[in-house]
Specification:
Layout: E1 6-8, E2 19-21, H1 24-33, E3 41-45, E4 50-60, E5 63-73, E6 80-86, H2 92-102, E7 107-112, H3 122-143, E8 150-151, E9 155-156, H4 157-162, E10 168-173, E11 190-195, H5 203-211, E12 215-217, H6 226-242
Parallel strand pairs: 1-3, 6-7, 6-11, 7-8, 7-9, 10-11, 10-12
Antiparallel strand pairs: 2-5, 3-4, 4-5
């Protein structure tokens, strides 16, 4: 079985037959790591639903020229899923992005909750956001997902609830007994899933979410790490929405 070579492009081609140059970072990776050669086939993604099959025409150490031989525009999922996930210390958010992109998350909202640890400056966040987008692009290349998710700025818990989009069905992960399973209905166009911090939500936060009409869910009788809960919740929701 031949390998699949994919690359991200900054501007979408206009028509079949057009010749494009790949971004330098992609060209360096393809030429020096994957050892692409003229005549090799590859697929270019623009992160906005575009898949462009191409043929490599020219390769240099930091230059790859490609002729577009086919265009395919992929519509987003009928139901778009936003993950609202509490920020945590270290690089846990970095670890989250790859599997969430593979599963087709549409939007990622970093959440500052009462139990969020650490301070978040705008400058540091912009650096993180650049890194997260690169991780997302790599995940989409590996999986063939043509849609890179949107990354929001960190949002306070109360603001996240007040900024819920009209028609967005919101699910709120909880450790409490007696809450129902995560089962969004296929007719919902947009779904938001809230995943709390290490140690869970505060009682005040749960009361606030309940008053705002969010649907509470529980994934397991055990306490899950943020990474486990987020990926599991998206997988369950995606499967439910495909039914």
């Amino acid at each position: 079985m031949s390998r699949s070579i994919r690359a991200f492009i900054e501007q979408s081609p206009i028509e079949v037959g057009e010749e494009i140059f790949l971004p330098e970072n992609e060209a360096v990776h393809l030429s020096r790591v994957l050892r692409i050669r003229p005549g090799d086939k590859l697929e270019c993604l623009d992160g906005k639903g575009g898949k462009f099959s191409g043929e490599c025409l020219e390769v240099d150490r930091s230059l790859v020229r490609v002729r577009v031989v086919g265009c395919d525009l992929i519509s987003p999922h009928t139901s778009r899923i936003r993950m609202v996930i509490a920020l945590s210390k270290g690089n846990k958010w970095d670890e989250l992005i790859r599997p969430l992109c593979e599963l087709g998350v549409s939007r990622l909202t970093p959440l500052i909750s009462e139990r969020t640890e650490g301070a978040f400056s705008l400058k540091k966040f912009e650096e993180k956001k650049d890194r997260w987008r690169k991780i997302a692009q790599e995940a989409c290349k590996q999986s063939g997902n043509p849609w890179v998710p949107t990354f929001d700025h960190p949002t306070l818990f109360a603001d996240a609830l007040s900024l819920v989009n009209d028609g967005e069905h919101c699910w709120f992960g909880s450790l409490n007994e007696g809450v129902k399973k995560l089962s969004p209905l296929p007719d919902k166009k947009t779904v938001a899933i809230f995943v709390g911090p290490e140690g869970g939500w505060t009682e005040e936060e749960e009361d606030f979410a309940r008053k705002e009409g969010l649907s509470f869910f529980r994934l397991s009788p055990h306490v899950l790490r943020v990474e486990t809960a987020a990926v599991s919740a998206l997988a369950v929701a995606r499967q439910s929405l495909l039914c």
